Amino acid sequence: MVDLGDRSYPIFIGESLLSKPEHLCPFISGSQVMIVSNETIAPLYLSKVCQILAGYQVDTTILPDGEKFKNLDTLNRIFDELLSKQHNRTTTLIALGGGVVGDMTGFAAACYQRGVNFIQIPTTLLAQVDSSVGGKTAVNHPKGKNMIGAFYQPQCVIADTDTLNTLPDREYRAGLAEVVKYGLIRDADFFVWLESNMERLLARDPEAIAFAVHRSCENKAKVVHEDEKEGGVRAILNFGHTFGHAIETAQGYGEWLHGEAIAAGMVMATELSRRMGWVSEEDKLRVVNLLEQCQLPVWAPKSIDRQTFMSLMSVDKKVLDGTLRLVLLKSLGEATVTSDFDADYLRTLLSAEE
Amino acid sequence: MVDLGDRSYPIFIGESLLSKPEHLCPFISGSQVMIVSNETIAPLYLSKVCQILAGYQVDTTILPDGEKFKNLDTLNRIFDELLSKQHNRTTTLIALGGGVVGDMTGFAAACYQRGVNFIQIPTTLLAQVDSSVGGKTAVNHPKGKNMIGAFYQPQCVIADTDTLNTLPDREYRAGLAEVVKYGLIRDADFFVWLESNMERLLARDPEAIAFAVHRSCENKAKVVHEDEKEGGVRAILNFGHTFGHAIETAQGYGEWLHGEAIAAGMVMATELSRRMGWVSEEDKLRVVNLLEQCQLPVWAPKSIDRQTFMSLMSVDKKVLDGTLRLVLLKSLGEATVTSDFDADYLRTLLSAEE
């Protein structure tokens, strides 16, 4: 449960949830439903979801798959479909897919007729542990990631862990980056658990996955409860993201997966924390080792020069009045948002080739 | 003052306000300002506003003028400019112009980095008495007006009545349609005042204008206070709009001005109310006469056939679960939102050529 007063909503986590109408139907407000999915996910799960929606007017919008389609043009296809099928203000949008589908469907729901209801059915690890929870919705702009969006909460989140079985290995591993993030920013015990259980997670042991998804959502829900609109502490969820977004923008969206860029970004932020004297060399190596075990990148590609990197970091949303603020680690398991770091450390770090 | 708890904001109405920093500067949060205006208004008032913004980073986005540019593509030009000039989350957008500029700037502010502050400086009568107050922001979609948007309140509204001096006559008269609306839906005394003072208003008597803008904003603010997100009573502000939007969509945006379409729509809604027996023939003629005095249209163009009209009315946002709801008059000065009207009356009315 994400506790946000009258915008609170439940998160259902478990196996075979897609066949159970009791988690979905009570959260649909009217008689119309628009399922938004993509070309990869729809063939796998769309008919299953449609089956439990008998009695509703069910329409679908199938988007192309990939971060590079997360833009205003693709968003407009959802609006086109809603208007063509005469969906009214009581309609419910359902996001069936990964983070990109969830972010776009949520933003479409926030804007369509100035706001209609929506439900998240995340089908990737990344979406289940991170993007589907907390109400951040957005599309990208050529000049910056997630620059156009809204805070808009879903009616409920349904994380069916069975859907992870069809997830390609690379995407699954990218999702683990965000799982590791919770350990780093606020849950040292969980980080230790991950060190001991990464083998099981990589082998997709259902019990280990269920625990990791639960624990991740629990951490995220607590942070969102404390600070829904990111006035303060919520920014720690962006650990590794200022570096990561710069990587994604420099390469063009879609080269690296989001989780891959975040993994590299987390190591860079940890290294800066180490140079500040907050994290030991030993702890930093634990971070590198855990992410390398997931076969994730642990530094930005060498092709991005320092100048470009700095300039891309400075358009990041964490910049307040010209001052670059970063999420750094005070210790392993405790993050802080600060502009109080040595800019020279950052500059030499960006020139380093690790 | 619009009373909305922690989202309350003041409305300043008067002469020469554009030269007074005390109404503007206290409502700017950071050091960056983006003024959004259009090609018609910018040459008249942009430099004036810039003068009182010394000390801020002031950037501008000048949009083409007209309802037909109120779409996602034009919206994106505002995002382009904000990102090119590296505006961060503490930036303040200023809408300097009519309803189209206000609606787009407000929606851009709602979406940019998931929400930044904005200020309304309406320069048309329509915007001063209606669109700048209440937080409705949106762009159009080819399939429907204002279909993509947000409820998003400004920090303040500055209505400088001097700016109406440069307003073309046709636009000024179109704005009077919304003024008349407040009399019809909830302020019978104001309607009587308008009948007695329309000559003065048409002659642009400053005192009469100031009174009409004040009284209109007062009415609007009270309705918005009661129902910010249009769950109920706020819908009465859409009196004439379901008919009016159908006219605008059928013709393509920009053929008739918004206020002209609303004038025709209000007469059609009044005529339907008359057929329901709620308004007398005599009162209906008072409405027609007052609008004709403003040289406003008092019926839809004959070129729109009944079939088209019905179908366009049914995608309007006031349709709930397939039932068309209309704002009608229970009497002159009292509106109601209802689906409880005789559909045959509506059909024959749409075939009538008045």
From TrEMBL, chains A, B:
Catalytic activity: 7-phospho-2-dehydro-3-deoxy-D-arabino-heptonate = 3-dehydroquinate + phosphate
Cofactor note text: Binds 1 divalent metal cation per subunit. Can use either Co(2+) or Zn(2+).
Main subcellular localisation: cytoplasm
Binding site for NAD(+): 65-70, 99-103, 123-124, 136, 145, 163-166
TM stretches of this protein: none
GO biological process, one term: amino acid biosynthetic process
Record bears the keyword Lyase: yes
Cofactors (names): NAD(+); Co(2+); Zn(2+)
Domain 3-dehydroquinate synthase C-terminal, chain residue ranges per copy: 175-319
A molecular function (GO) term: 3-dehydroquinate synthase activity
Record localization: Cytoplasm
Entry similarity comment: Belongs to the sugar phosphate cyclases superfamily. Dehydroquinate synthase family.
Function: Catalyzes the conversion of 3-deoxy-D-arabino-heptulosonate 7-phosphate (DAHP) to dehydroquinate (DHQ).
Protein name per UniProt: 3-dehydroquinate synthase
